[in-house]
Every structure is written in structure tokens, then in C-alpha cells.
Amino acid sequence: MNAPNVFETMQLLGLQARQASRAMARSGTAARNQALRELAALLRANVQALQAPNQRDLARAREAGLAEPMVDRLKLTPKIIETCAEGCEQLAAMPDVIGDIVGLKQQPSGIRVGQMRVPIGVFGMIYESRPNVTIEAASLSIKSGNACILRGGSEAIESNKALAALVQQALESAGLPREAMQLVPTTDRAAVGQLIAMPDFVDVIIPRGGKGLIERISAEAKVPVIKHLDGNCHTYVDDPCDLDMAVKVVDNAKTQKYSPCNATESLLVARGVAARFLPRIGAVLAAKGVELRCDPESAEIFKKNEPLALDGQAQAAIKNVVNVVPAQEQDWYEEYLAPILSIKVVAGVEEAIEHINRYSSHHTDAILTTDHGHAQRFLREVDSASVMVNASTRFADGFEYGLGAEIGISTDKFHARGPVGIEGLTSLKWVVLGGGEVRG
Amino acid sequence: MNAPNVFETMQLLGLQARQASRAMARSGTAARNQALRELAALLRANVQALQAPNQRDLARAREAGLAEPMVDRLKLTPKIIETCAEGCEQLAAMPDVIGDIVGLKQQPSGIRVGQMRVPIGVFGMIYESRPNVTIEAASLSIKSGNACILRGGSEAIESNKALAALVQQALESAGLPREAMQLVPTTDRAAVGQLIAMPDFVDVIIPRGGKGLIERISAEAKVPVIKHLDGNCHTYVDDPCDLDMAVKVVDNAKTQKYSPCNATESLLVARGVAARFLPRIGAVLAAKGVELRCDPESAEIFKKNEPLALDGQAQAAIKNVVNVVPAQEQDWYEEYLAPILSIKVVAGVEEAIEHINRYSSHHTDAILTTDHGHAQRFLREVDSASVMVNASTRFADGFEYGLGAEIGISTDKFHARGPVGIEGLTSLKWVVLGGGEVRG
């Protein structure tokens, strides 16, 4: 039983993080940017030194029988380290939002009232495998003036410790407290339970990982959680629609990568264009081996195999659409993260919105249309973190949105929604500037 | 055992609220403003009709032995009803924020990305006594395009039912769903347990009441809670400071009303001005019978009773400062809501900030100073929902801040902080406007 030790370890980490967060909140823009540039330099100077601990993690992972693609994700290659260093430099070059005062307005009483952007304090992050997340999280924490407690995967513990030491060195050399970034030093699972239950020391928890992990953490946490559950993203092909564009965008949304949370998992097609559109997208997806889970109406269209203006290759490919299987109710909820797409024919934009609001995980949903009114209605009524018109759902990403970096993607409505960047790690407090006013 | 009935009642309320929230999200500005003006008219037309149910509540309260000040809070006087009606009209006249798109920016990929303000969906509100809160909550809900489920105090159930009927009539006459505002029809306590545990139907809970109630709800809720715990507000008199202004502001902050959460409960005074300031404010507070819970240094100053430039009345008053009692550690945490003030002498702005960040409830804290640097530091470093310079803490209020109305005051950092108006009942979702872009 080392539970009491874990308790004490985590309490100490929490106390130190809270204290460090005060110093970070006081710190100047220059010091925080210096720490980021210092960290970039240290990462580049330590490409070789990072290999030894990383190799130990890899060896342990292989011994434990981890599949090679999973082992791959643990690797700290020179290229990955350079990407981390560049990320730190990009953050350093971004404007500082801490201390911004927005909406300062004169009130009838004489006082001026506005809101100041301040760090949220301390965030805890729980993540798996890729050790570069340690640098991403630490650098966002530094830029936003927070302190953080990071709990990486046990399979990457040696790599994470080596990276964390560089972060602390960078903080110190910029005159900031080392404890503004702390790595949970133990792989004991009890540490996670402690981390999510210290409201005095930790203001918010950001879990990154499987749905099971996030649901468990959300249920047990005693502080707010920035949740990223699943990405059951929809693309709706409207009537009227530029179908050439729709083929290109749906193809990209589904097949550019299968594993990201912003890949499209469900295709809705307006009845008016279904017979023309489905065979065309079917040909493209069949050529890539995508399984189609179809409602009866779309299945019927694929079966009819109507004459198409397709080139020879696509004509051949459409013959390969043997992979049409009937969709079950569960398919409309599913995040496949695989070459599978559910397909449903709907009457029009209204039914599409209804279907999406019912089955979507509220992550990202898109309409492809040439109708302005339909676009406006979809934007307004679809209740998801990102709602798109004529663009691939794959764009739902902090970098693509211009946030500079992303600590996660929230499927919640509360506080931060969608890609969470620096602002998601801050809060707005009210500031009142008076000249001795009193209330009458 | 009517628990199953309560369960079914609440599930039905939730389902209807969720459906109504979709219609509200779709609704136009004009319809929502019309509902608000209609409600104002109905309130004025029903001043007399509201008296009968209100009298029944009052009679029941008196029978139950409720103290007369508590009975008073239940009263729906013509003046209170008129204030409610005016509140509805003021909200109707305010600009609509729903559908606003902010920060729409062109990205290198070609897409334009911004954030659209949308209703949060359904909020549940749990409150006590004053039936006018029913109108305040319902009108904010209508303006912000949400649906709400309201659970008022059992002592005001008849008044609340009568008011809720008017709200539903106003909604209907504006072509909006009646179910956009529903009152929990039972006084069974199990209903509260249900209301806070329906994440499918309710997006956020706003409790208003005692600290015990709010802590219990926060601990048990399965959805986010906009918490207003306590208001242990500080006023810090800095060195240098305009002491005439400080006497006026501290007097107002403490004594203008004792019961509001934004009243000052703790006075910090810089050592450099303590000997000059404390006797002056002591005289003012003594004249009003305020008990002073003092640290040893401030107690010593009061005892010395140094010569002061006071008028005769104040000279007499200061002799009445018999009410100096030694502060205990617990006093620094206390929200008295009474004619009691804790007082401590500090070295300067740094110690004041440290004390406040340690003991404050993060509600509202003020510095009174003529030093620009001290003011800037206090604004930046005090970790509270409202931070003020040279103003009475009593200004921390949605109306005074220009929010038009206030559904509560949040002492949390997450989502909404400080006075919560319409924007606190909304969320920002990302919108992406493309022209067929795909991700490379």
C-alpha cells in the first residue's frame, strides 16, 4: 500500500502548483515568451540526449507486447522534437492575451466596467502515449500564464521526465518558478484519482484519451473537466448543391485520415440530389475500400447503379460497391474512426438538422449547399461546437482555426467549446475603475 | 411513495423543455421581444388577480410560523409587480446577442472562422422565497433564447404558479412554445434531485439560496452549476490614499445595506495610513453600531484614541467604540451579512493581495488608492470575480455593470464569472464559412 505516499505526493504537487500559478499570473509577457524560446533551444540542443530515455520507453513497450503502431506513437524522433521546438517559437511570437481588458464601458453611476483576461490558475492534464503532448501542454500553459500538473501515459514516463526537466530548466532560466510545470512522477493509478479531486489546488482537468477514460474522469472529478468525448461528425449534402464540390469535400472529410475525431462518420444526402450524388461519391469511396452503412433509400440507389458520367476507372470501381450493408440504429451514433461511413437520405435541410441534433456528438457538422437560406439555418440551428458551410469537417482544429495551438477539443457547451487554445485556459474577471463612487 | 411520479413528472418537463429550446433557438428577435412586452402587459393587467394566490401563500407562511421579515419577502405588491413589468420591457429594448458572429477571420486555407453566440439550451433554476425571481428568470430565459425549468420555494408555490401561467400566456401569444418556461409543479424535494441529474434535458443549473443549498446541489449535480457561494468581500485602504474618499467608500461598502453578498466584510488598511484612517472610519461605524473584529495592531490604534480632526458628534461617537473585539482566524473567512466588520493592518499592497487571495471568497474585492502602480497590481493579481479601484464593492451587480439584468453572481472561474446576465446563458460555437475547401 503506497496510497498515503501518492496522496502526499499529489498534495505537495498541488500546493506547489498553486503557489507557482500566482507567480505566473504576476509574470510579464517578456518572461513567458523567453521561457518558450529557451525551451525551443533546449529541445534542439537535446535531440540526442532525449534518445536514451525514449529508447528505454520503446524497449519496455515492445517487451510488454505493445503493437508496433502504438510503439511508433511513443517515438521522439528528431523531426518530432523539431516540430515541438517550432511550436514553442510560434507561441512565443503570438500576442499575449493575459491582462487584456475588453468592453470597458462607462456606467451611469460614474464607474467604468470591463473584463480582464487572466489565467485560469492551475490545470491538470491526463493523456496517453505521445510524449510530445508534454511539450504542447507545457508551452500552452506557459503562454497563458498558468501552472499545470501533467500526467502522461506510464508507457512514456522516461521520455516525459526528460522533457519535463527541459521545461523546468527553461522556466527557471526565464526567472519563472520551476513548479509552474510539474509531471506526476509516479505511474500509480491512484495519482489520477487524487489529481482530479483537489479543488483547492487544481482549477480544471483536461483529459485526452479514449471515451471510457474521459467518462470515468468526468464522473469522478471534483473540478470542472474540459471534455472531449467523441466526434460523430456529419456532412450533409443539400439540394441545391454543387455536386463536384460535394464529391471532393465528402471524400476529404471521410478519407483524408480515418482516425481523427473531426473525420466525417455520417453522410446525409437531400432526396433531390441523392440519385445523382450517391453513385458518384460511392465510386470514389469504393475505390478506397470504404464500407457504406446505408439506410434503405440510399442502399436502393446504390443497387440501381444508375448510368453515370464517370471515367473508366470509376465505372470499374462502382462495380466494387459490394460493401453496402444495411445501417442499424446504432450506426447513426457511431464514431467509426475507420473506413466506414453511414449514409442516409433525408427530405431536406430540416430533416438533416433534426437528425444531426439527435445523433451527433456535437463536435463538428457541415452542410454543403448553394442555398444561402439553408446555410444560415444550418449554422444557426445545428447545436454543435463547430458548424461549417462548404468545408471539410477535417478543418475543426486549433491550428486551422488560427488559435496557434490546441490543448484539446471540447464537445461541451460550457466555458470552452470546440478547439481549445490559449483563451480556453483563461477566464474573464470584471474590473471596475472608479473615482470614489458609492452606491446610492 | 410518490417518487416514481416525481421522476416521470420531471422527465416529461425535461423532454418538453429540450424540445422547446430548439424552437427558441430558431426563434426570431422580434418574437422574443414581443413575448417580453406581452408579459409586461399581462403583469400590469393582473395586479389584482395575483393578490389571491399571493395571499394564500402569505397565510400559509404565517400559519407555519414564518418570521414577518421572511413573510415580507413573499409579497407581490403592486410596486414589485410594476418593477417586474419594467424589467421585462427593459430586456425587450436591449439588443439581441443571439446569432452574433464575432471574430470572423480569414484563414490561410481559405476558410473563414468565427464564433456565433447561441442559447445554451435549457437551464434549471432553484430558488427560494421571493416570487418575483420567477419573472426575472423567465424574462432572461426568453431574451437569451433558452428554455428554463424553474423550481421556486414551496412557500411561494401559489404565487409562482400564477406568475408562470402569465409567462406561458405571453410566450404563446408571441408564437413561442409555452414549454419554454415550466415551473416544477410539485413541492416534493425529490424533484430537485431529478432536476439536477438530467444531462439529456438540462444544460446548466443555477441555484440561488444559502451556502448549504448550493454546496449540496454542486456536489450532487450531473450537469454544470453556476455557483454563487459566499461574498466575503474586502476593501483595502492603500498608502497613499485619499482618506476622505476612503471614509465615504468604506462606509458605503459596509453599511449601505448589510445583507447583500457584495457588502464589504473585511477591511484591510496599509500601516502607513492606519493611525490616521482607522479612528475616522471607526467613528463613522461606531455611530452606526458596527462591531469591529480587529487584529492586535488595529485594536491598539482604536485603544490609543489619538487626537483627531473630528467634529463633536464624531468625537462623541468614537467614545462609543467599545465594540472592538479581537478577531479570530475564522473572522478572516467570515461573510457576516450583519453590522460586523473584520479589520487588519497590513504592510502594503503586496500583503493585502496575499491576504485577499487567501481568505476572500473570490467574489468582489476593492483597493482604494492614489498610486497607479498599486492599482494596476491589485487589478491584475487579485483572483476574484470582480476587482475594483476606488469604488464601493456594493457596485458588483448586473444592473450596475450594464448587463440589463442578472440571473446570479458566479464565484467560479469557469464559463461565467461575477454577475451573470444574458451572455452567461449563451455559448459561443465555431462557424466555418468555406467555398469547398478541403484539408491538405
Automatic annotation (TrEMBL), chains A, B:
Keywords: Amino-acid biosynthesis, Cytoplasm, NADP, Oxidoreductase, Proline biosynthesis. Its main location: cytoplasm. One of its GO terms (biological process) is L-proline biosynthetic process. GO terms for molecular function: glutamate-5-semialdehyde dehydrogenase activity; NADP binding. PROSITE patterns: PROA. It catalyses: L-glutamate 5-semialdehyde + phosphate + NADP(+) = L-glutamyl 5-phosphate + NADPH + H(+). One of its GO terms (cellular component) is cytoplasm. Pathway: Amino-acid biosynthesis; L-proline biosynthesis; L-glutamate 5-semialdehyde from L-glutamate: step 2/2. Its EC number is 1.2.1.41. Residues 16-285, 321-397 form the Aldehyde dehydrogenase domain. It is found in: Cytoplasm. It comes from the Bacteria. Belongs to the gamma-glutamyl phosphate reductase family. Catalyzes the NADPH-dependent reduction of L-glutamate 5-phosphate into L-glutamate 5-semialdehyde and phosphate. The product spontaneously undergoes cyclization to form 1-pyrroline-5-carboxylate. This is Gamma-glutamyl phosphate reductase. It comes from Ottowia testudinis.
